[in-house]
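chain and backbone:
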Amino acid sequence: MKTSDFDYYLPNELIAQNPLEKRDSCRMLHLDRKKQTYKDEHFYDILNYLKKDDVLVLNNTKVFPARVVAKRASGASVEVFFLNPYDNSSRWEVLMKNAKRVKENEILNVSDDFKIKYIKKIEAKNENEIPHFVVEIDFKEDDFYSTLNKYGSIPLPPYINRKAKKEDTAEKKEVEKKEVKKTTAKKTTTAAKKTTTKKATTEKVETKKTTTKKTTTAKKTTKKAE
C-alpha cells in the first residue's frame, strides 16, 4: 500500500482559506453503513448520534506560533521554525529557511529581547528528509511560549494561500501569558493543521451531559413515586 493510493482531486475553490467563526458549524459527512447512503450535515449534529456509553474525545491541543523571522548582522532574513526542545530548556530543534550561509555560533536577531544562536546542523538520514538544526534561545519574557506568542506566527499548511493572523487560533485572540506557561507545553504542538479544525462547542457538549443527567434523575424519581 502506498500513500498515493489515498490521493484524490480537490478543487482549489473548495479549500476553505479562513476558519468559521463558529468552529462546530463546519460541514460533516454522515455515512450510513447499513443503508450505504451519505448526507451533508454540520459537526454539531454529531450530538444526535451519540449513544449511552459512547466516548467523545475532544482534542484540546494548540498550534503555537512557531514560525519566527530573524535577521543576520548583514540584514538578511532567516526563517526559523521551532519544532521541539532539544537537550535542555534553552536549546531547540528547528527548521531553517535561507540557512546555507549561517555559521555556527552566529547570532540571529528577532528583537532586542529575543535572540537566536545557531549551534549546529543535524544531517538528514536520507535524501527524502529535510535537515534539522539546533539553536539556543535567549529571551526576556517569563517563558519561551510567551515570547513565541509575541514574535511568532501560526504555521499554515501549503494549501492556505494567505498569511497567518491572530484569528487562526482557536480562541480568536492572542494566548495570554497565564495560558502559555511551561505546564501547558504537553498540550501544545507545532505541527500545522492538515485539515480544518473541527471542534464541538463546550456548551453543547455540556448541555448534552446535563440533559442526560436530568433524564436519568427523572426516571429514578418516577420509580420511587410508583
Observations:
- Confidence is low (pLDDT under 50) at residues 170-187, 190-200.
- The longest helix spans residues 202-225.
